[in-house]
Prior knowledge:
By secondary structure, the protein is mainly alpha-helical. The protein is 86% helix and 0% strand. The chain has a single domain (3-152), classed as Up-down Bundle (Four Helix Bundle (Hemerythrin (Met), subunit A)), CATH 1.20.120. The protein has helices spanning 3-46, 55-60, 64-81, 86-121, 125-152. It is elongated and about 70 Å long.
Amino acid sequence: MDAETMNTGLGIAGAVMTLGLSGVGSGLGTGVAGSAAVGAWKKCYAQGKRAPFLLIGFVGAPLTQTLYGMILMFIMIGRAKAGAPGLPLMLIGIFAGLSIGVSAWLQGRCAAAAADAQGETGQGITNYFAAIGVIETVAIFTMVFSMLAVFAV
């Protein structure tokens, strides 16, 4: 394998790591939020209350981080194919993917608490989504600033 092929391969591997790590975080986040939503619905049913469908919004919140990882991945693949240095792309991919993935995981934890609180009280939906949105911002900032780094290498 020649050096150019190896360089491109490292860059593409970093791009795939971005998506993979973002996806792991989304999986963890949606899993935690989904479990809490099911528990909140069960409490509602047990108390004879209507189970709020809007809890599904909490469950789905961490999915967007996978999209951010995918957007960054496509940009990184393009840069890798254009000859950008592979090692920096790989490092960007690892750290951006970790940051986006952890954001998704912790967003899911917040969404789980929100689902429980909303299911129990029926109040506070705006505040809960605001907190979830602040956590989302970490992933958005990571994606945007990582894009700047990708174009700088």
